[in-house]
Structure formats: structure tokens, C-alpha cells
Amino acid sequence: MSYAVSAALQSAVFAAVASDIAVSDAVGDAVYDALPSGAVPSIYVSIGPETVRAADDKTGDGAEHRFVVSVVTEVPGFFAAKEVAGHVCDVLHDADLSLDRGRLVSLRFDRARAVKIDKGTGRRIDLTFRARTEDN
């Protein structure tokens, strides 16, 4: 197993989501891996937590990454967040991303969870993706 591909995977995911026209039309440049200090936009995308487990095989070192991309909004209702979440899924599901280290074998949508936050005034959708990588 190698965790060494994790940073390359995060960079590629971030670049793909941040450069997508539909995502940027919805959230502008508000795609983060760390929230900026001060006020945040009323709707944004955040690259979040990750868990990784070994997925070695006969050909070499590999890992299965499960990571979360969140859509967070102060906008009432889930519609706006669901639209952005759909765009993120369009970008990442079955994406063929080029990594600075290693190789992305597969990237698939796994599940989503939509919840109310901020005492019911905001919404968050956590999208979980599963990526299989090889470290070559």
C-alpha cells in the first residue's frame, strides 16, 4: 500500500472541480481544500476528509481512497446545493484524471448525504467518492 499518491489525487480532484465551467458558473472560484479566513461565500465546494486502505495486487502497490467533497450553502432549501452537487458528480464520476504521481485506476461516486446545518438555515451535501490508485 502507498499513501504517497494521496496528495496527487487531491490536486487532480481539486483542479478538475475548480476548472469545470458548470461548477464555476454556480460557485465562482469558491472551491476550497481549506476554508479561507473571514467570511465565506453563500455557496461553496470543499474538498474534505479522506480514508485510505491498502489495495495492493500482483502488479504493485495500490490504495483505495474514499474522500468527501462537500457542497455548503446558506441558501434556503436543498435545490441550489443539489444542482452544484450534480455538477461535481458529473466532473468526478468515471473521470480520467492525470496524477503527478501514480495512476488513477478508477474514480466512482459512492454515496451522498444531504443535511440541514446552522439550525436549519443552511444546507450541506457530502458526496463520497471511491478512487483506486496505483503507485508506479
Give an account of the 3D structure.
- With 136 residues, this protein is α+β, with helices and mostly antiparallel strands.
- It has a single domain (6-134), classed as 2-Layer Sandwich (STM4215-like).
- Helix content is 26%, strand content 40%.
- The chain is built from three helices and five strands; from the N terminus they run H-H-E-E-E-H-E-E.
- Strands 1-2-3-5-4 form a five-stranded mixed sheet.
- Helix 2 packs antiparallel against helix 3 (79-92).
- The protein starts with 5 loop residues before the first helix and ends with a strand.
**Principal-axes shape call:** elongated
CATH class: Alpha Beta
Strand order across the largest sheet: 1-2-3-5-4
Beta-strand share of residues: 35-45%
Helix content: 25-40%
Q: How many strand segments?
A: 5
Give structural attributes.
136 residues; alpha+beta; STM4215-like; 3 helices; elongated
Topology:
Layout: H1 6-19, H2 21-27, E1 31-32, E2 43-54, E3 62-73, H3 79-92, E4 103-117, E5 122-134
Parallel strand pairs: 1-2
Antiparallel strand pairs: 2-3, 3-5, 4-5
Summed up, what is this model?
It contains 3 helices and 5 strands; from the N terminus they run ααβββαββ. It has helices at 6-19, 21-27, 79-92, and strands at residues 31-32, 43-54, 62-73, 103-117, 122-134. A 5-stranded mixed beta sheet has the order 1-2-3-5-4.
